[in-house]
């Protein structure tokens, strides 16, 4: 289970315990973007501890800012997609850390919330861990992750997931955590079914029935994918600009060209920094030299990205 939970989290993020069935209490449910309205009461991360330092200096999180956050409103836990992202963010480090260590860390942060939000958060974390464990065991036994590519298998797994969520969570929590996922799952399966029958008119109508924010997100994803494909297939900057202009319009083509130039400059500066580190690797004061170089050549925001960017480039 220790290994399987992180696998489930990574698979569900589009994601230890036995069964916990606890009342929801006075939870505040908010499926909307938490940044659109500021909670009355928010507690940040706990003060630095050895475990806190180990986690945030680990290979998994080095150079990364926590995704999501814990929030309370009028003393009650605020349940929204941001809370789920927060839990998934830390659970993604299982493997580098044990599930016991990550759970202990998350529980410590949850205990800094005011009552009753602290206990509500702990109860919800227990349910979420048990929910992920059930998914991992179901997939391992049934082979759904490997053999579920057929429409019937995918449909069975989707229905099982929806039932499982309603065992562990209240409907409002399901809407906040999984509402978009379930809408997209149902859309995707119905689209596969219509594609098999060749009903293009029904497929177009199905697209229109998606919630507006999901249609916008799908259009953005398609645009990003198209832009990436164009950049990979066209080497000449002018030809690339023309292709983007035809696809997205002149203004968007100009913005993407500026972004390309910024990325190229970033890669050059990153290569210069790597070369500097390699030239001075044997010097006793390399850490002080590296820090001085970073301060002189990178903004404070860029400095947070450096370690992760160097690691990503070395993996290519």
From TrEMBL:
Its main location: membrane. This is Lipase chaperone. GO terms for molecular function: unfolded protein binding. May be involved in the folding of the extracellular lipase during its passage through the periplasm. It comes from Thalassolituus maritimus. Keywords: Cell inner membrane, Cell membrane, Chaperone, Lipid degradation, Lipid metabolism, Membrane, Transmembrane, Transmembrane helix. Belongs to the lipase chaperone family. One of its GO terms (biological process) is protein folding. One of its GO terms (cellular component) is plasma membrane. It comes from the Bacteria. It is a single-pass membrane protein. The keyword Transmembrane applies. It is found in: Cell inner membrane. InterPro entries: Lipase_chaperone. Pfam families: Lipase_chap. The keyword Lipid metabolism applies.
């Amino acid at each position: 289970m220790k290994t399987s939970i992180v696998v489930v989290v990574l698979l569900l993020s589009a994601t230890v315990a036995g069964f916990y069935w606890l009342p929801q209490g006075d939870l505040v449910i908010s499926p909307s973007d938490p940044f659109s309205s500021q909670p009355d009461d928010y507690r940040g991360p706990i003060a630095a501890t050895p475990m806190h330092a180990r986690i945030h200096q680990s290979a998994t999180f080095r150079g990364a800012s926590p995704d999501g956050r814990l929030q309370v409103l009028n003393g009650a836990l605020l349940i929204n997609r941001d809370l789920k992202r927060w839990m998934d963010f830390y659970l993604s480090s299982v493997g580098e850390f044990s599930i016991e260590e990550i759970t202990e860390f998350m529980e410590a942060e949850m205990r800094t919330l005011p009552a009753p939000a602290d206990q509500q958060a702990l109860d919800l974390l227990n349910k979420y861990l048990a929910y992920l464990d059930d998914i991992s065991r179901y997939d391992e036994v049934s082979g759904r992750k490997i053999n579920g590519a057929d429409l019937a298998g995918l449909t069975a797994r989707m229905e099982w997931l929806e039932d499982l969520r309603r065992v562990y969570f209240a409907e409002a929590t399901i809407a906040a955590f999984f509402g978009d996922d379930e809408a997209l799952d149902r859309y995707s399966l119905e689209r596969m079914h219509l594609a098999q029958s060749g009903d293009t008119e029904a497929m177009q109508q199905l697209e229109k029935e998606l919630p507006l924010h999901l249609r916008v997100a799908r259009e953005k994803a398609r645009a990003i994918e198209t832009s990436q494909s164009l950049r990979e297939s066209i080497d000449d900057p002018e030809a690339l600009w023309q292709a983007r202009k035809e696809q997205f319009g002149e203004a968007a083509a100009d913005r993407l060209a500026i972004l390309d130039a910024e990325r190229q400059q970033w890669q050059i500066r990153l290569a210069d920094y790597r070369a500097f580190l390699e030239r001075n690797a044997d010097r006793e004061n390399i850490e002080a030299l590296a820090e001085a170089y970073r301060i002189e050549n990178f903004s404070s925001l860029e400095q947070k990205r450096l370690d992760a960017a160097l690691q990503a480039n070395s993996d290519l």
